[in-house]
# Entry
Amino acid sequence: MSADQSSRTARRHRARWKRGGAFDEYEPEHNTHVLIEPNEDRWEWRRRIRQDPRKLVVYRVGVAVAGLFFIILGALTGPIPGPGGIPLVLLGLAVWSSEFRWAHRLMRLFRLILHRLGRWPLRQKVLLTVLAICVGLTGAYLGFVVFGVPPWMPDVIADLLRRLPGV
# Structure
């Protein structure tokens, strides 16, 4: 390797580190957010919106409100049984990432984390699941100790919870 090639490689690695660190390795060649560039947008209707600054402001506010709606809805439906919380929060983040660079980078970070977790051996996944359940149950117990049993709780479950020490 020549000195010139070595120096170019070093500059590229430094630029990658400055760009955002470890999670850029998941998509190394796609650092620019394609949807931010008005000429390269794949949808004609959005390309026309991006050419008019007033329409662009209204569009970006609409995207921000729609993403916030899904995130708040995800936070509200998180404790309810069913596929609420996390998928809705990720949907809101995906809506934001279609327009905002910081949200796009955050989505890439989540993708990298999921990619890395997928490569874990089964034993590590089970250990992480058990640890998360223990932390969640401990948090719920501390909540019952501090705030008591909620009045909306069914009587059968409330009676069982009142038998716990300190509740």
